[in-house]
Amino acid sequence: MKYGVGAAALALAIIAVAIIANPYLVNNPGKTTSNGSAGSSTSQQANQPPGNFLVLLTDPPTVPAGTTQLNVTYSSITIQVKYANGTSASVPVIASGTVNLLSLVNVSQTIGSTNIPAGSTVSSLKFVISSASATVNGQTFPVTILSSQLVVPIKGGQVINQTRSAALLDLSPTLVEVDATNSTGGAVSYYVLVPSATAIVKSGASQGQEKVGTKTQLDQNDKTDLDSAQKTVMANVTITAATLHTAGNKTTFSVTLKNQGTSNATIFGLTLHGNFSSSGAPSIACAQTTSSTSTSSSSKSTTSTTTTTSSSHGNQGNPPGQTGSAHGQGQGQGKGEGQGGCNSRNGAQDHPDTIPFKVNATTLAPLFGDGSDHVGSSTVTLKAGQSITLSFTGVIGIKTDNGQHGQNLIIGANSGTSYTIRLDGEGFQTAQVTAA
After folding, report:
1. What is the CA radius of gyration of the chain?
2. Which of 63, 104, 106, 337 is deepest in the core (most CB within 10 A)?
């Protein structure tokens, strides 16, 4: 009996130590997996009830005219949790699913849940996109993703004490359409998804929201909190200098950024918007293009920039830098911030007016979705007070036959023309640069 009591006491002591060291053990009874179809996501939780911490997705996308679906397949979601005892853990939430982002304007959809002990805080959310597709004018196209792994800080630092709380992820991407002519003069279209993302903690999620796939209207507090979180981060990232010039077929483009804030800021990539020149492929001029078959030659010049902070909730189809309130307006369509080409599908377009750039350390790489991408996941994080220069030197070319015949279409900047730089990350910000 004496030895039996001693053994039982020792076992209880071991269990208590394990719980203190990792409280997640008693709050995550089962692994979450999911499967999904276009426009929805579903979850299977191995006979376990929904957790007390939900992940909700909302999205006001910017898309070209005629887009009826923008389907994104995600392969995993992970949240970074700090427990009340000071320990931290990376907690998986859900395995996979597919969501039609155009169904989430002014609406949130539950895409997963897990259990988190009271007194914990959630500092960031990792959202991994495995593939995307878009249906435009009745035809479905594959979409190239500028950054497939989005690590998004969760603003506020609220302690999770509610019975049911949630991370609200605002994924507000731009779908860039790149229209060109192929080697036989026919029209070809490519699509690139440029993400922007913000996340907040939403206390006191509604009863019934815990079921994966549930959609709920965003309230005004949600919209205000998302806009505030976005502006707080991106307002601190300043474009201090930029250069842009083309000599022959070679383009040099650089952007210097500085994080003026007190917290880290993440950039997923950037886009350059304006009236470019092109050469080297059959040319069918756009009505808005005045120099579609010429290239410019210039010398280096550094330009000063004026930075405008905008809310992604207010720039759906608007020109770069123009603000508004996107929540409540539906998805943006028509030629604007998110659409390359020159807004005509009656004839082929010979070059884009939007060039997306991926970020690899300090290097920029143009990305058109034409099969020429060889750069890894796009992201750069600026620490508080840090400056960084992102640059590209080389030929900006579109492989208009999916890479079979090399760079058929060469893109360049026109001397004296003003271009808009848009940084995309935790929200977005724009600035102007004039090509020399």
Report:
1. 24
2. 63
- Report the mean per-residue pLDDT for the chain: 75
In a domain, 20, yes or no: no
Tens-place pLDDT, residues 361-408: 899 999 988 877 665 668 889 999 999 999 999 999 887 765 555 557
366 forms beta bridges with: 357
Q: Domain containing 421: what range?
A: 236-434
In sequence order, the 6+-apart residues with CB closer than 8 A to the CB of 147 are 195, 268, 269, 358, 377, 378, 379
Q: Say yes or no: 206 and 103 in one domain.
A: yes
Measured at the CA of 34, the angle between CA 31 and CA 38, to 5 degrees, comes to: 165
Tell me which of 229, 261, 295 is where a domain ends: 229
Q: Do residues 305 and 403 both lie within one domain?
A: yes
**pTM of the predicted protein model:** 0.75
Q: Return the pLDDT at 233.
A: 66
Cα–Cα distance, 99 to 56 (Å, whole number): 12
Which amino acid type is present at position 234?
A: M
- Asked if residue 180 and residue 279 are part of one domain, the reply reads no
**Residue 95 resides in a domain:** yes
User: Is 400 inside any structural domain?
Assistant: yes
Integer Cα distance of 130 and 109 in angstroms: 19
